[in-house]
Design a protein that fits this description.
By secondary structure, the chain is α/β, with parallel strands linked by helices. Helix content is 56%, strand content 8%.
Length: 288
Protein backbone atom coordinates (compact mmCIF):
# COMPACT_ATOMS: atom_id res chain seq x y z
CA UNK A 1 0.00 0.00 0.00
CA UNK A 2 1.56 3.34 -1.08
CA UNK A 3 0.55 6.14 1.25
CA UNK A 4 2.03 8.85 -1.00
CA UNK A 5 -0.22 7.68 -3.82
CA UNK A 6 -3.15 7.63 -1.40
CA UNK A 7 -2.42 11.24 -0.49
CA UNK A 8 -2.33 12.21 -4.15
CA UNK A 9 -5.64 10.47 -4.89
CA UNK A 10 -7.31 11.99 -1.83
CA UNK A 11 -6.34 15.53 -2.85
CA UNK A 12 -6.58 15.12 -6.63
CA UNK A 13 -10.01 16.64 -7.27
CA UNK A 14 -9.16 19.79 -5.30
CA UNK A 15 -5.90 20.46 -7.19
CA UNK A 16 -5.65 23.18 -9.87
CA UNK A 17 -5.00 21.96 -13.42
CA UNK A 18 -1.23 22.54 -13.36
CA UNK A 19 -0.84 20.50 -10.17
CA UNK A 20 -3.09 17.75 -11.55
CA UNK A 21 -0.55 17.40 -14.36
CA UNK A 22 2.14 16.87 -11.75
CA UNK A 23 -0.05 14.33 -9.94
CA UNK A 24 -0.73 12.42 -13.17
CA UNK A 25 2.97 12.38 -14.01
CA UNK A 26 4.01 11.07 -10.59
CA UNK A 27 1.34 8.38 -10.52
CA UNK A 28 2.51 7.12 -13.91
CA UNK A 29 6.27 7.68 -13.60
CA UNK A 30 7.23 8.00 -9.94
CA UNK A 31 10.71 6.54 -10.58
CA UNK A 32 11.55 9.72 -12.50
CA UNK A 33 11.56 11.56 -9.15
CA UNK A 34 14.90 9.94 -8.38
CA UNK A 35 16.38 10.33 -11.86
CA UNK A 36 15.77 13.96 -12.78
CA UNK A 37 16.13 17.36 -11.06
CA UNK A 38 13.03 19.50 -10.62
CA UNK A 39 13.88 21.56 -13.72
CA UNK A 40 13.69 18.46 -15.94
CA UNK A 41 10.61 17.11 -14.14
CA UNK A 42 8.81 20.37 -14.87
CA UNK A 43 9.75 20.16 -18.55
CA UNK A 44 8.81 16.49 -18.90
CA UNK A 45 5.44 17.01 -17.24
CA UNK A 46 4.61 20.17 -19.17
CA UNK A 47 4.39 22.28 -16.01
CA UNK A 48 6.66 24.55 -13.98
CA UNK A 49 9.01 24.14 -11.03
CA UNK A 50 6.64 26.22 -8.93
CA UNK A 51 3.78 23.82 -9.74
CA UNK A 52 5.86 20.90 -8.48
CA UNK A 53 6.63 22.70 -5.24
CA UNK A 54 2.99 23.72 -4.72
CA UNK A 55 1.87 20.17 -5.45
CA UNK A 56 4.19 18.67 -2.83
CA UNK A 57 2.90 21.14 -0.25
CA UNK A 58 -0.74 20.53 -1.23
CA UNK A 59 -0.47 16.83 -0.36
CA UNK A 60 1.22 17.51 2.98
CA UNK A 61 4.97 17.70 2.35
CA UNK A 62 7.37 20.61 2.87
CA UNK A 63 8.57 20.42 -0.71
CA UNK A 64 9.74 18.06 -3.45
CA UNK A 65 12.69 16.82 -1.40
CA UNK A 66 10.37 15.85 1.44
CA UNK A 67 8.06 14.06 -1.02
CA UNK A 68 11.02 12.13 -2.48
CA UNK A 69 12.11 11.10 1.00
CA UNK A 70 8.62 9.81 1.74
CA UNK A 71 8.64 7.67 -1.42
CA UNK A 72 12.13 6.39 -0.63
CA UNK A 73 11.18 5.52 2.96
CA UNK A 74 8.12 3.60 1.80
CA UNK A 75 10.10 1.67 -0.77
CA UNK A 76 12.52 0.52 1.92
CA UNK A 77 10.08 0.16 4.78
CA UNK A 78 9.75 -3.15 6.59
CA UNK A 79 6.05 -2.41 7.14
CA UNK A 80 4.08 -4.69 4.86
CA UNK A 81 0.41 -5.34 4.47
CA UNK A 82 -0.69 -8.91 3.89
CA UNK A 83 -2.04 -9.45 0.40
CA UNK A 84 -5.15 -11.21 1.60
CA UNK A 85 -8.85 -10.65 1.54
CA UNK A 86 -11.12 -9.09 -1.10
CA UNK A 87 -9.84 -6.44 -3.50
CA UNK A 88 -11.38 -3.03 -4.09
CA UNK A 89 -13.49 -2.84 -7.22
CA UNK A 90 -14.33 0.72 -8.26
CA UNK A 91 -18.00 0.32 -9.10
CA UNK A 92 -21.00 2.45 -8.38
CA UNK A 93 -24.02 1.12 -6.48
CA UNK A 94 -25.95 0.14 -9.61
CA UNK A 95 -23.09 -1.93 -11.08
CA UNK A 96 -22.90 -4.78 -8.57
CA UNK A 97 -24.11 -8.18 -9.71
CA UNK A 98 -24.30 -10.04 -6.38
CA UNK A 99 -24.58 -9.58 -2.64
CA UNK A 100 -21.17 -11.23 -2.27
CA UNK A 101 -19.50 -8.60 -4.45
CA UNK A 102 -21.14 -5.85 -2.38
CA UNK A 103 -19.90 -7.39 0.87
CA UNK A 104 -16.41 -7.91 -0.60
CA UNK A 105 -16.12 -4.31 -1.71
CA UNK A 106 -17.45 -2.81 1.53
CA UNK A 107 -14.99 -4.95 3.45
CA UNK A 108 -12.04 -3.98 1.23
CA UNK A 109 -12.74 -0.24 1.24
CA UNK A 110 -13.38 -0.17 5.00
CA UNK A 111 -10.16 -2.02 5.79
CA UNK A 112 -8.13 0.19 3.46
CA UNK A 113 -9.66 3.33 4.96
CA UNK A 114 -8.44 2.35 8.43
CA UNK A 115 -5.02 1.21 7.17
CA UNK A 116 -4.27 4.35 5.16
CA UNK A 117 -5.53 6.61 7.95
CA UNK A 118 -3.30 4.72 10.39
CA UNK A 119 -0.29 5.28 8.14
CA UNK A 120 -1.02 9.02 8.10
CA UNK A 121 -1.03 9.03 11.91
CA UNK A 122 1.11 11.86 13.31
CA UNK A 123 1.88 11.12 16.96
CA UNK A 124 3.17 14.63 17.65
CA UNK A 125 0.03 16.36 16.41
CA UNK A 126 -2.15 13.82 18.18
CA UNK A 127 -0.27 14.30 21.45
CA UNK A 128 -0.69 18.08 21.38
CA UNK A 129 -4.38 17.83 20.47
CA UNK A 130 -5.00 15.44 23.38
CA UNK A 131 -3.34 17.84 25.81
CA UNK A 132 -5.50 20.72 24.62
CA UNK A 133 -8.70 18.67 24.92
CA UNK A 134 -7.89 17.44 28.43
CA UNK A 135 -7.19 20.97 29.65
CA UNK A 136 -10.06 22.70 27.84
CA UNK A 137 -12.70 24.60 29.75
CA UNK A 138 -15.27 23.35 27.24
CA UNK A 139 -15.12 21.13 24.16
CA UNK A 140 -17.45 21.91 21.27
CA UNK A 141 -17.81 19.27 18.56
CA UNK A 142 -19.19 19.94 15.09
CA UNK A 143 -20.07 17.67 12.18
CA UNK A 144 -22.81 17.50 9.57
CA UNK A 145 -24.09 14.66 7.42
CA UNK A 146 -22.16 11.40 7.68
CA UNK A 147 -19.33 13.23 9.47
CA UNK A 148 -21.90 14.06 12.15
CA UNK A 149 -22.07 10.35 13.04
CA UNK A 150 -18.41 10.27 14.07
CA UNK A 151 -18.80 13.64 15.81
CA UNK A 152 -21.71 12.28 17.84
CA UNK A 153 -19.73 9.18 18.77
CA UNK A 154 -16.89 11.29 20.19
CA UNK A 155 -19.44 13.44 22.03
CA UNK A 156 -20.94 10.36 23.72
CA UNK A 157 -17.53 9.03 24.69
CA UNK A 158 -16.38 12.32 26.25
CA UNK A 159 -19.74 12.76 27.98
CA UNK A 160 -19.26 9.38 29.66
CA UNK A 161 -16.02 10.53 31.30
CA UNK A 162 -17.63 13.75 32.57
CA UNK A 163 -16.03 16.20 30.16
CA UNK A 164 -17.75 19.51 29.52
CA UNK A 165 -18.66 18.74 25.92
CA UNK A 166 -21.29 20.11 23.53
CA UNK A 167 -22.62 18.73 20.25
CA UNK A 168 -25.72 19.73 18.28
CA UNK A 169 -27.02 18.35 15.01
CA UNK A 170 -29.05 21.51 14.45
CA UNK A 171 -27.03 24.22 12.67
CA UNK A 172 -28.79 27.06 14.49
CA UNK A 173 -27.98 25.56 17.89
CA UNK A 174 -24.41 24.99 16.77
CA UNK A 175 -24.13 28.65 15.79
CA UNK A 176 -25.53 29.63 19.18
CA UNK A 177 -22.98 27.54 21.10
CA UNK A 178 -20.02 28.59 18.95
CA UNK A 179 -20.94 32.23 19.55
CA UNK A 180 -20.10 31.62 23.22
CA UNK A 181 -16.76 29.89 22.63
CA UNK A 182 -13.55 31.40 24.00
CA UNK A 183 -9.74 31.04 24.08
CA UNK A 184 -9.88 28.44 26.86
CA UNK A 185 -12.10 26.15 24.78
CA UNK A 186 -11.45 23.58 22.06
CA UNK A 187 -13.55 23.22 18.89
CA UNK A 188 -13.36 19.90 17.02
CA UNK A 189 -14.56 19.76 13.42
CA UNK A 190 -15.46 16.61 11.51
CA UNK A 191 -15.68 17.20 7.79
CA UNK A 192 -15.69 15.03 4.66
CA UNK A 193 -15.52 18.16 2.57
CA UNK A 194 -13.74 21.36 3.61
CA UNK A 195 -15.97 23.29 1.19
CA UNK A 196 -18.98 22.58 3.39
CA UNK A 197 -20.40 26.03 4.09
CA UNK A 198 -21.95 25.05 7.43
CA UNK A 199 -18.70 23.68 8.85
CA UNK A 200 -16.64 26.58 7.53
CA UNK A 201 -19.04 29.11 9.07
CA UNK A 202 -18.65 27.41 12.45
CA UNK A 203 -14.89 27.06 12.03
CA UNK A 204 -14.44 30.74 11.18
CA UNK A 205 -16.45 31.77 14.25
CA UNK A 206 -14.40 29.52 16.56
CA UNK A 207 -11.11 30.67 15.03
CA UNK A 208 -12.03 34.35 15.32
CA UNK A 209 -12.94 33.79 18.99
CA UNK A 210 -9.46 32.43 19.72
CA UNK A 211 -10.49 28.86 20.52
CA UNK A 212 -8.09 26.00 19.84
CA UNK A 213 -9.26 24.24 16.67
CA UNK A 214 -8.92 20.56 15.77
CA UNK A 215 -10.01 19.11 12.42
CA UNK A 216 -10.65 15.49 11.49
CA UNK A 217 -10.82 15.66 7.73
CA UNK A 218 -9.42 14.51 4.41
CA UNK A 219 -6.03 15.50 3.06
CA UNK A 220 -6.02 18.68 1.07
CA UNK A 221 -4.67 22.19 0.88
CA UNK A 222 -7.71 24.22 1.94
CA UNK A 223 -8.86 26.74 4.52
CA UNK A 224 -9.66 24.07 7.10
CA UNK A 225 -6.34 22.21 6.91
CA UNK A 226 -4.15 25.31 6.61
CA UNK A 227 -5.82 27.47 9.29
CA UNK A 228 -6.67 24.79 11.84
CA UNK A 229 -4.34 24.43 14.84
CA UNK A 230 -4.29 20.62 14.72
CA UNK A 231 -5.32 18.44 11.77
CA UNK A 232 -5.89 14.68 12.06
CA UNK A 233 -6.14 13.25 8.57
CA UNK A 234 -8.68 10.58 7.65
CA UNK A 235 -8.49 9.17 4.16
CA UNK A 236 -10.55 6.55 2.37
CA UNK A 237 -11.07 5.01 -1.11
CA UNK A 238 -14.53 6.32 -1.98
CA UNK A 239 -15.99 4.80 -5.12
CA UNK A 240 -18.16 7.45 -6.75
CA UNK A 241 -20.10 10.51 -5.70
CA UNK A 242 -23.38 8.75 -6.47
CA UNK A 243 -22.55 5.97 -4.03
CA UNK A 244 -22.42 8.26 -1.04
CA UNK A 245 -19.71 8.34 1.60
CA UNK A 246 -19.15 4.95 3.20
CA UNK A 247 -15.58 4.00 4.01
CA UNK A 248 -14.66 7.49 5.24
CA UNK A 249 -16.89 6.86 8.24
CA UNK A 250 -14.62 3.99 9.31
CA UNK A 251 -11.55 6.20 8.96
CA UNK A 252 -13.11 8.88 11.18
CA UNK A 253 -14.30 6.35 13.77
CA UNK A 254 -10.77 4.92 13.94
CA UNK A 255 -9.51 8.39 14.85
CA UNK A 256 -12.36 8.87 17.34
CA UNK A 257 -11.50 5.63 19.15
CA UNK A 258 -7.79 6.47 19.15
CA UNK A 259 -8.44 10.00 20.40
CA UNK A 260 -10.81 8.90 23.16
CA UNK A 261 -8.51 6.11 24.33
CA UNK A 262 -5.53 8.49 24.44
CA UNK A 263 -7.56 11.03 26.47
CA UNK A 264 -8.85 8.41 28.90
CA UNK A 265 -5.39 6.92 29.29
CA UNK A 266 -3.71 10.23 30.06
CA UNK A 267 -6.47 11.51 32.32
CA UNK A 268 -7.28 8.16 33.93
CA UNK A 269 -6.89 9.26 37.56
CA UNK A 270 -9.60 11.89 37.05
CA UNK A 271 -12.02 9.88 34.92
CA UNK A 272 -11.77 6.41 36.47
CA UNK A 273 -14.70 7.00 38.83
CA UNK A 274 -16.96 8.13 35.98
CA UNK A 275 -16.17 5.00 33.97
CA UNK A 276 -17.05 2.93 37.02
CA UNK A 277 -20.28 4.83 37.70
CA UNK A 278 -21.56 4.51 34.14
CA UNK A 279 -20.67 0.83 34.09
CA UNK A 280 -22.53 0.22 37.34
CA UNK A 281 -25.73 1.99 36.33
CA UNK A 282 -25.93 0.11 33.03
CA UNK A 283 -25.20 -3.15 34.82
CA UNK A 284 -28.03 -2.77 37.34
CA UNK A 285 -31.06 -5.07 36.88
CA UNK A 286 -33.82 -3.41 34.89
CA UNK A 287 -37.20 -2.79 36.49
CA UNK A 288 -39.79 -5.44 35.75
Amino acid sequence: MNIVSERIKSCYNALPSSEKKVADYILERKDDLFQYPIKDLARLSGTTQAAWTRFAQAIGYDGLKDLKNAYYTEANSSLTVADKGPKISFKDVNEYTSLQSIADNICATSVQAVQTTYRLFDAGTFNDAVDKIINAKQIQIFGVGTAGLAAYDLYCKLLRIHYNVVFNQDQHLSLMTVSQIGPADVAIFFSDNARNKQIMQLFTAAKDAGATTVAITKLGNNALTTRCDYVLFATSPEIDKKSGITSSRFAQLFLVDTLYTAIANRDYDNIEKYLALSYEIFSEPQWE
